[in-house]
Design brief:
Number of helices: 27
GO molecular function: ATP binding; DNA binding
Strand content: 15-25%
Number of strands: 38
CATH architecture of the largest domain: 3-Layer(aba) Sandwich
GO biological process, one term: cell division
Oligomer: single chain
Number of domains: 4
Pfam families: FtsK_SpoIIIE
CATH topology of the largest domain: Rossmann fold
CATH class of the largest domain: Alpha Beta
CATH superfamily of the largest domain: P-loop containing nucleotide triphosphate hydrolases
Largest sheet: 11 strands, mixed
Organism: Chloroflexus aggregans
Structural class: alpha/beta
Keywords: ATP-binding, Cell cycle, Cell division, Nucleotide-binding
Length: 942
């Protein structure tokens, strides 16, 4: 036939699907065959087109292949409506007769039809599982059709298709269908002792979720983010380590060299080895995973490289392979299945040619499979839904789960899980603890594929809980205290609390275990608590040295150490935290255990931080904050809306995630007020069950006011007087001013209006009860001691210069012939010195003045005379004050108000680094020789 043949192809994709069209396009010109291909996009134009024509409603352009653009323009002919309809009717009778290679593919393939010889719904256990020899793995599994009724088989053996592959397909092309078919075909033909599955879906996991309950599945990972990706890599790495250990154990136990999983299986029957299934890791939505978690992809490739010999396989599914398949990934892939793709670039990535971009959208499941350089056109199989509404996937799932349970029970073995579910956002049930152990929460150890209670033993070291705002650190600290108190009676646990937050710890005050709760703004109480704990340690050290038990454990809990530190810095500076450092350093061996919470590592001075061996870090603002805590920077941040989620530094596995648990009694609320109410309710219930055993001694705190009527009477010592003047916190009880042979005199020093005159009146008031003592009063210009002139024990009251002159003569006589004990009291010494300068400076005349005699008394300590002088400060050029100051006996009022470098009564003031002005009237340091100075509250009038 000499007439030319015109073939019009509507859609460039048909040229790829039908091989004959491509041959006609290439060679048909020699036989008078003209092929016209219609397309909407130049990029889809098939090869071997000799000319290209572009038309629109107004103009046309054409050019020959190889010629430069722009093309030659022309005016297209127009065809009226009747002509178009006539041509369409003539063409409508033409049908494409599909012949040749790949053109007899079915449009649909049911997977269960391909698996008929392996799987039957009537059999309780797939016969294939039992028929496989022990060392067999991955016989061909059908996953589709290559035409003429021939099935397409996939074989993951190294010598066949290879262990690692990729599936690519655009939306609606059948990618998820193919994944499900491959999983089903492998699972039906291999028992869970031959094949395990690890399913990873970056998004919601809809395609892979049905396989989560299958007996083959050792992990189903979905909704990956940075944290979960890191956790997944740790879990997979742990599985590789486990497999290597199994191979090495066989080598070491039986002296047989085992290099890979095939060697292991070959010895399984001989040595009755534990099953070692092949592991198929399936990653869906790989393109999104590669963009969002590139580090995960790189780490996964490194893991897969190591896993080839260990029976680890990888199958990834993506929509855009050209964007995400790197050279490193491509080098590991051995088979490629390309469904319809969105671009020629994606197709070339998969097949090294653009054909997959032209697969028809009306044929979902049509694909090319390439292994090596050969690519075959196939129709992949699918799990279908029957006319009666019964789903193939549901049928297979039901029977495999039932069969798997029976099969594994017969083996008395089950696969090792690779993936544990993530930690719960809220945790109430934790393993029980004993003694000073606290099950603080649940620890996630993906490297060991397990989650275990974190037991913190306070005997192993002090504990600090770090965390930013709303991280749950106060709740965690309170829970620890309450957990210990719920298990130990009050005589087996003594608790002292410092509540820097002012909420949760305060709710524990009703516990009989609590000796005191102090807030940071109660500075004196803070210092008193430190001193009391220090005294406890001293007593315990003595008991231990004597071979006795140190006593019940002491627990010091401090919530928000920064608040404590700031308050003490404002008042006393850093040195009072040195007291806490000393307690932490020496307390553990003597039964003192400290728990604190802090927002950041810088809240703890370095010397204090070094004493805390156990650390928990709940969510902190920045990743570098964790580095300050642990010395290690985590790869990812903790979730922002999960209070109680934190990190713990494991000795072997590094930083691990932790979820702090809450008691069930606290309910599900995260509101601090509701939690506080729940704590108070629990405390009340515990009090109702508490035994009558004694709790800790309460904190000895100085009163802000003390009446003279509350003081005991003067006591006579062996030599001298013991005069009550106030109240001491340590040891609790009256404070005494000692005027004896060693310290016959005393100096009362304080700033203006600090209570010096009141102190003198208190001492005089107490001396009135001692009949053998006579008082000589030298009053200052303010006449503050005038009320003492009528006291029976007052033998002389001096308030002017004449009185001083007369007293000078009388004092000379008294010193030579003392008849009774005399207490010489001088008030406002600095004003007396200024007003009566001639009598309060050293005289070198033959007749000594009052000052000379007072200096001699101070320096010699002649009995039975006692000096009691009140002054604002010790003057270095004043021999009287210098003598009394060096004797180190007296009272320093408001000791925190002195500038740094001040030295009084042998003490460097202030006792800490900074001054304070917030001391109540009558607060003073009582100094007595070489004894430790004691903080006291001096008594005053009602």
């Amino acid at each position: 036939n000499s007439l030319p043949i015109l073939i019009i192809v509507d859609g460039a994709g048909l040229v790829t699907v039908h091989t004959a069209l491509g041959q006609l396009l290439r060679d048909g010109g020699a036989y008078g065959i003209i092929v016209v291909v219609l397309t909407d996009d130049w990029a889809n134009m098939p090869e071997h087109c000799a000319a290209m024509v572009e038309v629109d409603q107004r103009i046309g352009r054409w050019t020959r292949a190889g010629e430069a653009w722009p093309a030659t323009p022309f005016q297209p002919d127009r065809l009226d409506r009747s002509g178009i309809e006539q041509l369409a009717r003539r063409l409508a009778t033409i049908r494409l007769n599909e012949v040749g290679v790949g053109q007899n593919l079915p449009r649909h393939v049911r997977l269960l039809d391909l698996l008929a010889e392996y799987f039957s719904a009537n059999h309780p256990v797939p016969t294939r599982w039992q028929e496989l020899p022990t060392n067999a793995w991955c016989a061909d599994v059908p996953i589709g059709s290559v035409g003429d009724g021939k099935p397409l088989h996939l074989n993951l053996n190294e010598q066949q298709h290879g262990p690692h592959g990729i599936i690519a397909g655009t939306t609606g092309a059948g990618k998820s269908v193919l994944l499900q078919s491959i999983i089903t075909a492998l699972a039906v033909t291999h028992g869970p002792d031959r094949l395990n599955l690890l399913l990873i879906d970056f998004k919601g996991g809809a395609a892979l979720a049905p396989f989560a309950p299958w007996p083959h599945t050792t992990g189903f990972i979905t909704d990956l983010d940075g944290r979960m990706a890191t956790r997944a890599i740790a879990a997979i790495t742990s599985e590789l380590r486990r497999r290597k250990t199994m191979l090495r154990t066989v080598t070491e136990s039986y002296g047989v060299h085992v290099e890979n999983i095939a060697d292991y299986r070959a010895l399984a029957d001989k040595y009755t080895l534990e099953p070692l299934p092949n592991l198929l890791i399936i990653l869906d939505e790989f393109d999104e995973m590669a963009r969002s978690c590139p580090d995960f992809v790189s780490a996964l490739v490194r893991v897969v490289k190591q896993g080839r010999s260990l029976g680890v396989h990888l199958l990834i599914a993506t929509q855009q392979p050209a964007r995400v398949v790197s050279d490193e990934i491509r080098s590991q892939l051995s088979y490629f299945i390309a469904l319809r793709l969105g671009s020629s670039e994606d197709s070339r990535e998969m097949l090294q040619r653009p054909d997959a971009a032209f697969l028809p959208p009306q044929l979902p499941g049509r694909a090319y499979m390439r292994s090596g350089s050969e690519a075959r056109l196939v129709q992949v199989a699918r799990l279908t839904t029957q006319a009666n509404g019964q789903s193939d996937l549901e049928t297979v799932t039901r029977q495999l789960c039932n069969a798997g349970q029976v099969y594994l029970n017969a083996l008395n073995w089950k696969p090792s899980p690779i993936w544990q579910p993530p930690l719960p956002a809220r945790l109430t049930t934790i393993a029980p603890a004993s003694g000073l152990q606290v099950a603080i929460g649940l620890l996630d150890i993906p490297q060991q594929t397990r989650q275990t209670p974190l037991l913190i033993d306070l005997k192993a070291g002090h504990l600090v809980i770090f965390g930013g705002p709303a991280s749950g650190k106060s709740v965690a600290l309170t829970r620890i205290v309450l957990d210990l108190a719920s298990r130990l009676p009050p005589d087996a646990l003594w608790c002292y609390l410092i509540d820097g937050d002012g909420r949760l710890l305060n709710a524990l005050t009703g516990l009989p275990h609590v000796g005191a709760l102090v807030r940071p703004f109660e500075r004196e109480a803070l210092l008193a608590l430190f001193r009391q704990l220090d005294n406890h340690l001293r007593e315990r050290r003595t008991r231990v040295a004597a071979g006795q038990s140190p006593g019940p454990p002491l627990l010091l809990a401090i919530d928000r150490i920064a608040a404590v530190r700031d308050e003490l810095r404002d008042t006393y500076g850093e040195s009072d935290l040195v007291e806490l450092v000393r307690l932490a350093r020496h307390g553990r061996d003597l039964g003192l255990h400290i728990i604190i919470s802090a927002e950041r590592a810088s809240d703890l001075p370095y010397r204090l931080a070094a004493q805390f061996e156990q650390r928990v870090a709940l969510r902190m603002p920045e990743l570098n904050d964790y580095t300050d805590v642990f010395g290690i920077r985590p790869a990812t941040q903790l979730p922002p809306l999960t209070p109680g989620r934190g990190y713990w530094l494991h000795n072997d596995e590094g930083l691990l995630e932790l979820q702090v648990g809450l008691p069930e009694e606290w309910g599900d609320s995260s509101d601090s007020r509701e939690i506080t109410h729940a704590i108070r309710t629990q405390v009340a219930a515990m009090n109702g069950l508490a035994s009558a055993c004694s709790g800790p001694p309460p904190l000895a705190i100085l009163p802000e006011r003390l009446s003279r009527k509350q003081l005991p009477t003067v006591r006579r010592g062996d030599v001298g007087l013991i005069i009550p003047c106030g109240w001491s916190a340590e040891p609790p009880g009256p404070a005494f001013l000692h005027l004896g042979s060693a310290t016959p005199h005393a100096l009362i020093i304080g700033p203006r209006r600090s209570g010096k005159s009141s102190t003198l009146l208190t001492v005089a008031h107490e001396v009135q009860t001692e009949a053998t003592v006579r008082m000589i009063i030298i009053d200052g210009p303010r006449r503050s001691l005038s009320q003492l002139r009528t006291v029976p024990q007052t033998v002389r009251y001096i308030a002017d210069e004449a009185g001083l002159i007369a007293f000078s003569v009388e004092l000379t006589e008294l010193r030579h012939h003392p008849t009774e004990r005399y207490l010489i009291i001088i008030d406002d010494y600095h004003l007396c010195r200024e007003r009566w300068r001639d009598h309060f400076t050293q005289s070198y005349s033959p007749t000594p003045n009052v000052f000379n005699q007072l200096v001699e008394l101070a320096q010699t300590g002649d009995e039975p005379f006692h000096l009691l002088i009140a002054a604002t400060i010790s003057y270095a050029d004043d021999p009287l004050l210098r003598a009394l100051d060096s004797a180190r006996n007296g009272i320093i009022l408001w000791p925190g108000r002195y500038d740094t470098g001040t030295r009084l009564l042998g003490l460097n003031l202030p006792l800490t680094d900074q001054r304070t002005f917030e001391q109540p009237p009558g607060r003073a340091l009582l100094v007595s020789g070489d004894d430790e100075p004691v903080m006291v509250q001096l008594a005053g009038e009602e």
